[in-house]
Design brief:
alpha/beta; 17% helix; 2 domains; Pectate Lyase C-like; eleven-stranded parallel β-sheet
Amino acid sequence: MNAAKSKQIMAVLLCLAVAFSMLMMTCSNVCADTDPTVAEPAQNQNNEQDATAESQPSDEQEQEQKPVFKNGKITVNTFSELCEAVQGNKKKTVIIGKDMTIGSHGIPVGNNTTLIATGRTLKCPEGAIRIPGTKSNYGSFDNVKITGGTWVSKYDRSLFQFVHGRNLTMNKMKITCGITGHAIELIACKNVKILNCNVKGIGKAKKDCLEEQIQIDIATPRTAPTVANKLRKGQTCTNVTIDHCTVTGARAVCANYASAEKKYKSKFHSNIKVTNCKLTGTKSEALALFNALNVTVKKNTIKTKAPLSRGPYSVGCHIHMFGKVKGVKVKNRKVTIVGNNVYGGREAILIYSHSSSKYGKAIVRKNKAHCKNGGSNAIKVDGVSSKSVKSNKQSKW
C-alpha cells in the first residue's frame, strides 16, 4: 500500500473516532435529563424542606396564638390558660371561650377578678373554685365576681368553697352538685351576693340527710376541718344576700352553727337576706337559718318534701337560736318574714330560741303558710322580744 492511500485511510478512521466520541457524549446527556433518579430526589428534598418550614410557625406566630390581656381583658380556651390568667391581684376580666374540664386543684382565682363563663359548660369532677383561708378578718380574698356558665359535677364535698373573704358575687350560674355535698360553701365570708342562680343537688341521699346546697358556715374545728387552726375561732358570715335563685337539695339553704362545739354556740351570723327565690328541701328544711341575726326572708316559694315524722327537720322556713347573744342590741336581732309561699310539715314557718337570749322584733306578714300538721300549726313565733304576726293565710296540705 502506497503512502498516499495509507494517509487517506488514517484520516477516515480519525473522523469515525471523533464522530463516535460525540455520539457517546450526546447519549450521556440525554440519559441524565430523562432519568428520575438523577434530578427528582434533590427536588423532593427541597419540597419537603419548604413544607416543613410552612408547618412550623415562627416565634412571632406562636406569640400571636397565645392569649394576652388587652385593656384588662383576656379570652382563654384551655384550663392551663385559665389558671394562668386568673392569678394575681390586678384588676382583670377573664372570659372562658370554650367548654372545658376543671382540674382537680380547681381554678386559683386571685383578687379583683371577674370570671365570665356565659354559654360555656364546665365539667368539675373534683371541685370548681376553692379559695383557702390565709388571713383572718375577711382578708383571704377580695372582689371576686363569677358570671354565667353551666357547672356540672357529682362531687359530694364543696364544689365552690370560699374562706375568710369579702366582696363575692355569683350571678347567672347553673350548678349541679352531689346532693350529699355543697354546691356553694361560705366559711366566714362578708358581703356576698348569690344572684339569679340555679343550683341543684343530684344523686341519692339518705332520708335523714341534712346537707344543704348553699351553706353559710361558721369557722370551727368541726365545721371547717380543712381550714388552718388560727382561722377556726368561731368566725361567722355577715351581709349575705341570695336573690332570684332556684335551689334544690336535701336542704336547699342553711346558715350553720356549731352544734357539737359548746364554746362556739354564742357565735352568730348577721344580715342574711333570702328574697325572690324558689327553695326546695327533699329530705329536710328548705330554708334553715340557725344562729343568724337580722334576717330577712321575702317573696320566696319555700317547700320541704320531708315527711311530718321528721319533726323539726320537716319545717319549711326554720329560724332558730341556740346560743346566748353577746354584744348585739335587740334592735339588730330583727327577723322579717313577709310575702312568702311556704310549705312545711310540723310547721311551715318557725321562729324559736333554745337559749335565754331572744330575737328582736319578729315581723311575719302576708305569707301563705301550708302545713301538713294542720293550718293552725302553720306559723309558730316564740323567743322574740316582740312580734307582728298578721295578714297571713294558714292551711293544711
